[in-house]
Amino acid sequence: MTTTPVRQTSHLLSRRDLDFMLYEWLHVVDLTTRSRFQEHSAETFSAVLDLSEQLAVRKFAPHNREGDLREPVVGSEGRVELIPAVREAIDAYIAAGLQAASFDHAYGGMRLPVTVQKASSLWFTAANASTTGYLFLASAAANLLVAHADADMVDRYARPMIEGRFFGTMCLSEPEAGSSLADITTRAKLQDDGTYRVRGTKMWISAGDHELGENIIHLVLARTGGTGSGIKGISLFAVPKYLVESDGSIGERNDVVLLGLNHKMGNRGTTNTVLGFGDGTHRPRGEAGAVGYLIGAEGNGLACMFHMMNEARIAVGSGAVSLGYTGYLKSLAYAKTRLQGRRAGEQNPSSPRVPIIEHADVRRMLLAQKSYVEGSLALILYCARLVDEQASAPDEAERDRARMLLDVLTPIAKSFPAQWCLAANDLAIQVHGGYGYTRDFDVEQHYRDNRLNQIHEGTHGVQGLDLLGRKVRVNGGRAFRMLIDSMRQTALSARGRDGEPAVLAELLERRIDRLVVTTETLSRSADREAAMANSSVYLEAMGHVVIAWLWLEQVVVAAGKVDDFYNGKRAAARYFFHYELPRTDHQFDLLCRCDRTTLDLDPEWL
Amino acid sequence: MTTTPVRQTSHLLSRRDLDFMLYEWLHVVDLTTRSRFQEHSAETFSAVLDLSEQLAVRKFAPHNREGDLREPVVGSEGRVELIPAVREAIDAYIAAGLQAASFDHAYGGMRLPVTVQKASSLWFTAANASTTGYLFLASAAANLLVAHADADMVDRYARPMIEGRFFGTMCLSEPEAGSSLADITTRAKLQDDGTYRVRGTKMWISAGDHELGENIIHLVLARTGGTGSGIKGISLFAVPKYLVESDGSIGERNDVVLLGLNHKMGNRGTTNTVLGFGDGTHRPRGEAGAVGYLIGAEGNGLACMFHMMNEARIAVGSGAVSLGYTGYLKSLAYAKTRLQGRRAGEQNPSSPRVPIIEHADVRRMLLAQKSYVEGSLALILYCARLVDEQASAPDEAERDRARMLLDVLTPIAKSFPAQWCLAANDLAIQVHGGYGYTRDFDVEQHYRDNRLNQIHEGTHGVQGLDLLGRKVRVNGGRAFRMLIDSMRQTALSARGRDGEPAVLAELLERRIDRLVVTTETLSRSADREAAMANSSVYLEAMGHVVIAWLWLEQVVVAAGKVDDFYNGKRAAARYFFHYELPRTDHQFDLLCRCDRTTLDLDPEWL
């Protein structure tokens, strides 16, 4: 078996489950037959996962609560002070080669499949979401630069981020423009030397200031003025905290200043900042304005930024999964050891007490958590597998299919875990009873940390608009149809097996049919406003169908295999199909009649 | 109109809504025709509500965040130190006569109807749940003593609590016995003088230690040894922190010591303690053991304690309502003023931005909150009205009916607000976006404070067991049938009106029928274990039916009246019936088939 004492006691994730998903279901070893991943093998993958768990347990988990209690402060000379353990953990991660892992050899990486890299990353977010935030923003920023910036910029900014010397941010929101990027007012003015001078204020910038590395590269959306209003006028710039000389050495201070730290409900260890660009505090090269470097073409900023945003959205989902997962394992361990009450029907008050896992309602709360977190994990790893397909599948049709599926699944990969792994954390508190409400146990912090995930990188509502307004419609609904086909294929294969898989397949097919009809109804509706009014409900209903599909996938893989692990998979699938999936029925009813309750309302009535 | 500038800006509760419920729906003024309440009038009720709002705004709300940031600590000589504002607020409350308000004249009270007293109390919990906790525990303890203790004990302990000089607690749980009272081990031994000596450890004791008054009277469940095992062997004792001499003066220190403070996710301003009774720190009257005084008969402790527990359960529900309500009003105010984005379909990016309340999904989140919090408020005030009926209805049949309805509604009055007003707080955070996740806004604290309410005074699961296992069955289901009759009566009256009320009535009747059939199916099931396995689902389904009924009640009252307020009532009812009530359908399906998913499970599979 794959469990070891350390793994059993860490309660961060289940390695057995990760192995199941990676090897038995997603067949990641098959990737090693492709040239991009040919140096890899099941052994290298397992080594990465072993290392990740060990490092997460030893370096990241121990300061998770301390980071919550002692949040970042602005210290002397305006420098942001973090607890020392953050730097130690980050240094160990970088030294282990994990920051570069999925990058090309040219950048010192090892071309690790994104699927395995994602599985690795889950250990760290489960152990300490806040500390991990600094690392993941840097690698996502580097990914964007590698994809969109010219070679000189990649060398100057991306390479040091991959090496772990620089860090990165994404600067989109502004105080008066949160979800509405069309309204950003930060300006960038072209200079004679081809650089830009950037002026404006950015809000909600995670990891926006700290002293963890030599530099911070801000990826900033700003207007150049010449390319129109709304989102069409927006370009993307790299704005380093310190200018970088042509030889790569650190130059003078750029005019990017910390205007304030936000103090949050959770996720407190990651600085969240208000940043001023070009407010005149510093005068790089003797002139006013923060020096910025255009990435891609003028007016194409949002398209470039979406490279990072899509990655970040799936990262939000995976962060939510890991917090949900560790909360589940902790409440499971508690339920197995905490003695309280007697089995239902036991009349003798002096009979021995039983572990609370014997109580039906505690089991319900555990099965619910398991169904949410393992269903979400499947979705996240499936998406990561699509990223690998996109990069390495031998024929274009397969790469195109992967791109399409990833596109339509991204809002769900962001929102389902953010909603339901948070619900899992809520249940983990409840299983702990009064103890779960105290700060002596981890679960209340997991809840607070996880609450962020419905808000950042596009709120829940924004994901609903994206899914129903764009993703299921683009290219005449091609991506949506591909997804439907994939789900039907799974149902078909489950129908071919006797017993429960066939029963679940029928339940899934019924909802796939409803999803298709609902989507067509909304697409054809003459009343576009009413059709879009319940897009969050649509997001949630489709999320449940997708997760049911991925549970059926797991049931098919587990078919014919009998041990505790596979029995657990079947039990959680059963729970999801019988307790969760049916909630979509009234959501589809509501959607199909284009309910106008929210529209036929005067704000003054509230 | 009844609104004034102070009311409009407090964002604690809606006075207009309280007036609607008290006067237009529950007709509290009718109570003044009964001898018990004959000195009262609409004017005295309104004066109490005016005073309550003012006091809550001026004395309780201002230190709500400070109490969260600076939680109680154990200071010099083991004394618990609270921020000074707590004492000031409590003194003002007592000085205003509110602590005694609903008590008899004999205790310095003004016989305020419980319905009005409950409405008054909501202002304070909305403003500061933690500070209010000290007051409410004292009055609930005094209520118990007045009902069950002899005259001397009432004089010695209850009277000073009503006067605001003493405070009180309820001591049920122990470290190894949380929800399972049958397992408590605290012992009480009869002495020659008729007093008892109490020894044991109590856990999760709210307001268990502080210096707010002269004394703290702990109401303690303990075993006397002679009356059997399980819950039958439990008796109730008053155990004062300081002994009280026969002349009422404060005597020596009793052997009740603070063993520790719990540090919680929220509700931080109320001390939550581990208390040691009779551990030998003090030796009152020169002997070992904490001096305790039996309340009621030996072995009858739980029955007495339920007097306080039932009151506390409804208080938990009303606390949850008030936190949900203030969060709703704050997110509503934010949504009306925060500009972001444009109306759906607006193509011109330079058109003016709109308040976010114009977005359908924000309206959905506001209507959901309104439907939860006003529905819950209706339930709490309805229950309070039943308490008044129980005490003052002219004929026994009416008093009996009130007692029955209150009995069956108590688990729902505790659990629906605890679950759904918490969900409202979650939505209030979401409406605020990133700001809602910061500690600069109130809503994240409301969430954390409110999260307690699903745990204490009987967890959510315990309420489900109580409802399905006991409350709907006792006396051959008489209370349940009375409730069903009341609901059908409302539906019938709504059917008599044209248009929407009749439509909603039909939707409600359909679910009443399902509730009845489900309840019968479960009662008759031969597989008792399976019938009880989903009692939490039953609790939630019945909760939604009850709240739908109370929304229909409001719609009937509002029928024919047209202004913003009544239109808002109709909109929220519409939301609840179309978005919320249908979720019961699959819950009833699950219940009727006695789903065994949670039972047919080996814990090792998880």
TrEMBL record, chains A, B:
Q: Does the keyword Oxidoreductase apply?
A: yes
Q: Which UniProt keywords apply?
A: FAD, Flavoprotein, Oxidoreductase
Q: Where is the Acyl-CoA dehydrogenase/oxidase C-terminal domain?
A: 299-465
Where does the record place the Acetyl-CoA dehydrogenase-like C-terminal domain?
Answer: 485-602
Name the cofactor(s) required for activity, per the record. Answer: FAD
- Keyword Methyltransferase appears in the UniProt entry: no
**Coiled coil spans:** none
EC class, as a word, reads oxidoreductase
Record's superkingdom?
A: Bacteria
> Which E.C. number(s) belong to this protein?
1.3.8.-
Please name the GO terms that the record assigns under molecular function. Answer: oxidoreductase activity
Q: Which residues form the Acyl-CoA oxidase/dehydrogenase middle domain?
A: 170-242
Q: Which family does it belong to?
A: Belongs to the acyl-CoA dehydrogenase family.
Official protein name in the record? Acyl-CoA dehydrogenase
- Could you tell me which species this protein originates from? Phytohabitans kaempferiae
